[in-house]
Hints:
- By secondary structure, the protein is mostly helical.
- The protein has two domains: 4-137, HAD superfamily/HAD-like (Rossmann fold, 3-Layer(aba) Sandwich); 142-250, no CATH class.
- The protein is 59% helix and 8% strand.
- Helix 7 links the parallel strand 5 (108-112) and strand 6 (126-128).
- Helix 1 (4-14) packs parallel to helix 8 (133-173), helix 4 (55-64) packs across helix 5 and helix 8 runs antiparallel to helix 9 (182-201).
- The radius of gyration is 27 Å and the shape is elongated.
- The termini are far apart.
Amino acid sequence: MRPSVAAAVAAAHTAGIKVKMITGDFPSTARVIARAAGIPHELVVTGDELRSAGSEQVQEWVRTASVFARVRPEQKLQLIDALQAIGETVAMTGDGVNDAPALKSADIGIAMGKRGTDVAREASDIVLLDEDFGRIIDGVRLGRRVFDNLRKVIIYIAAIHVPIAGLGLLPVLLGMPIAIWPLHVVVLEMLVDSMSSIAFEDTPAEPDVMRRPPRPRGERVAALPQLIFGLVQGAAVLAAAFGLYAGALALGLD
């Protein structure tokens, strides 16, 4: 076992990710490996127990147990299906031909790049080139950062378009001189699109990004609270900008 595995498992637990070990080794061996990796090992379920258990019992085991020993290849698929049946989003690592059905069934199949078979790689969504478990955690961190930054972009775009639209419409509706012309709108749009891409592309992750629980499965990037927040910010900017414009007109500064 690589030295980085224990640290990666600890980081996964902090991020609300449950790490489960499925192996063909004997229970005693599996327990020793799990202890070294920092995986809970109080309950070890064997392949023989899985074979004789009903679906409800298997679902209870995948909720409470983190180590499964003497597991046959076809039972890996059984465990993946049980986890998905209780609402979990499942990522699985594997390298053998017999792992292919489970890798295909998992929400995210992850194959080993060096010792993984062609069949396993073809069945997977991701291939780990250096076969380091820690890279999976790095991928989770990157994914959460990208998700957060997309939300920031949506808030920014919603906020910036309210004053642009408002300054274009309100003077016309109120019979006032035009505040911004179409050319101004085009220039502003060019700046908004380019600057948002540059600004949010390299925005670092929030300090607590790996201390949050996983997002609900159906959560959208453009959720209603974020849109409302952006629109409220935009309305505040519009009020300030329109107030300055109206004040300038009143003072004869047009």
